[in-house]
Structure formats: C-alpha cells, structure tokens
User: Fold Vacuolar iron transporter from Solanum tuberosum.
Amino acid sequence: MAAQNHVQVTIPKENHAPEEDFDYSQRAQWLRAAVLGANDGLVSIASLMMGVGAVQENVKTMILTGFAGLFAGACSMAIGEFVSVYSQLDIERAQMKRDKETGGQNREHQEDGEGNKEQLPNPFQAAVASSVAFSLGAIMPILAAAFIANHKLRLAVIVAAVSLALLAFGGIGAFLGRSPMVKSCARVLIGGWMAMAITFGLTKLIGSTGLEI
Assistant:
C-alpha cells in the first residue's frame, strides 16, 4: 500500500494591524484654548450685558458694552494664552537642553525629548485660537440682543441664546475629548447661569442704592 504524502498547506492568517488608539490628550492644547475661550466669551459678555441691562434699558448701551467687552476680552485672552504657553515652551526647551548636556546619563530621557520636539506647544497658535474662540462666543449674546426692542424680552432672549450655546459648546468639548456628555453640558450650563444671575443681581443691588449712571 503506497504511502500517501500529506502536504499541509498553511493559510496565512490575515494580518490585522491593531487599531491604534487615538491619544485624545494630544488635542488638549488647542481644545482647551478653543473651548475655554468660547465659554469665557459667551459667559463673560452675556453676564456683562445682563449687568448693564439690570440698570439700563437702552439697547444701544447694552450693545456697545458687549462690543467693548468683546474687544477687551479677545485681546486679554490672546495675550494671556501667549504668555502662558510661551512660559511652558521655555520650560520644556530648557529641560531638553539639560537632557542633551547630560549625555549618556539621561540617554533615555534625551531620546524621548528628541522625539517630542514636534509636539512642543505653539504660543502663537494657542493665542489665535483663544482669541478667535472668545470672539465667536462673545458675539452670540450681542447678536441675540441687537434686534430686540423690548427690554425684558431682550434679557430673556440673551439668557435663552446663551443657554443653547453653552449646551452646544459643552457637547462639542465632550465629544472631541471623549468625556461624559451630560456632565460636561450640565457643568457649563449651570456655571453660565450662575455667572449671569450673580452679575445681574449685584449690579441691580448697586443701582438700587441710588448710584446714578
């Protein structure tokens, strides 16, 4: 009986490259500047307009106040972010220089530093992102109030528009950062309401003391 030659054919398994997990922490720099800038612009300018609206019914006064706050806030955010990120950049560059000077003593740290040069923070990018985001957030309550003649309705529209925008910003930030959606939205919404209510109440209190504006 002839021996049967069994040829074993090995079918190569498909080489499924492991799906790389995206490091959402890489978004931290620009996401932080953009989301915080938009929230700051939205809440601060809305609160400023609500405070003025507590003692002034003139729509022109509210709009001018809003624009003044927008210009001042955008410049402040840009300068503050630039200085902050530039300081961080100086610290990281100084650390990389020290690692290079130590030679073999910190070889592993030095190699990591060389690989992370492209990930160094960009102060100009952070400043522009913060300023633009602040302006986009700040313009919303201004536009909401611009075409409303009735004073009380104008205040209500500002609160409604700001609330919707806060929910949107909170949702966008949570989605991009893969953080809990409900908690993020609730946090920014409640914070915005508190800021507007406190500013309105305290300004109304000061105005009721007889201070003429």
Notes: Residues 9 and 112 are 45 Å apart (CA to CA). The chain has one domain: 29-207. The first helix runs from residue 28 to 55.
